[in-house]
Amino acid sequence: MQMLVVENLALTFADDAHALTTGFGKVLVKIVTSPATMITARIERIANACDVAGVLADRRTKANIVAFRSRKHTSISSQKSPRWCLFPFHSMNHLT
Fold it and tell me: What is the per-residue DSSP string for 20-38?
């Protein structure tokens, strides 16, 4: 009986420690990425305000459809592209 209580305490401690570190990691990621999100949100608002013909919305839907279709045929390890994070304005390449 005593061994069962000790085992339950150890498992509970391990689960709580895991949840604490996961939450702390999420908070750190949110703190680190919030300045970049704020900057890109402003740029996105300006771009959407200047988009009279709806070109950006069409390009985003087409890009999402193409990405979804290509994601089906690729392996899981190759789905995360580092280029996606480094170039957030890839949908506006026709403007230059």
Answer: HHHHHHHHHHHHHHHHHHH
Cβ burial 15-47 (10 Å sphere, 16+ → b, else e): eeeeeeeeeeeeeeeeeeeeeeeeeeeeeeeeb
Do residues 30 and 78 make contact, with C-beta atoms less than 8 angstroms apart?
Answer: no
The answer to whether the CB of 56 falls within 8 A of the CB of 47 is: yes
Q: How many CA atoms lie within 13 A of 60 on its CB side?
A: 10
Task: Give per-residue pLDDT as tens, 52-87.
Answer: 777 777 777 777 777 666 665 555 555 455 555 556
